[in-house]
Write a structure and sequence with these properties.
This protein is α+β, with helices and mostly antiparallel strands. It contains four helices and seven strands. A hairpin with a 5-residue loop joins strand 2 and strand 3. The protein is globular, with a radius of gyration of 16 Å. The model has no long low-confidence stretch (mean pLDDT 84).
Length: 161
């Protein structure tokens, strides 16, 4: 599992709430002896090996394989070669997903409802998601809808299966 946070370019300062949230999550990760911080100046990156059991990984992979669909973009300007993977929206309250979601939230020191629903991504050989930012561009047409449903991301958690 890895976690990262990066200030969006062109966004001069995070809101005070987001800035405080970023600090408290970093403090929780820094204080956890199972978590390692990656030495880099461009982002806050942490990782924890063996976050999930083999059984949990198998169940997530089966769920992703059974429910995957072509990945999409939020943009209203389609670029059909930009993202060619497949995605699965995880059922947040599923008995196989909820404990993982809650474990991630506990590790970050946040309430589970402050996070987005987990997604699974599948990449076959040759598929891609070109270089992109993992935050929402506030100048894009999708921003108002995203803002109403929770707003800007501050941290991303990724589990590599």
């Amino acid at each position: 599992m890895s976690f990262f946070s990066r200030k969006p370019k062109g966004n001069p300062a995070a809101s005070p709430v987001r800035a405080r949230f970023g600090v408290t999550v970093a403090q929780a990760l820094d204080a956890n002896p199972a978590v390692t911080r990656v030495a880099t100046d461009t982002a806050q990156i942490y990782y924890q090996a063996d976050f999930l059991t083999g059984d949990q990984c198998d169940k997530l992979m089966a769920m992703i394989d059974a429910n995957r669909r072509p990945s999409t973009l939020l943009s209203d300007r389609p670029d059909y070669g930009f993202r060619t993977s497949e995605s699965c929206d995880m059922a947040r309250w599923s008995p196989d997903v909820q404990p993982i979601d809650e474990s991630i939230a506990a590790l970050l020191g946040i309430a589970p409802e402050q996070g987005e629903t987990m997604q699974g991504q599948r990449y076959a050989p040759g598929q891609q998601f070109r270089a992109h930012h993992d935050y929402f561009h506030e100048s894009e047409s999708y921003w108002e809808k995203v803002r109403v449903h929770g707003g800007q991301r501050t941290w991303t958690a990724m589990i590599y299966l």
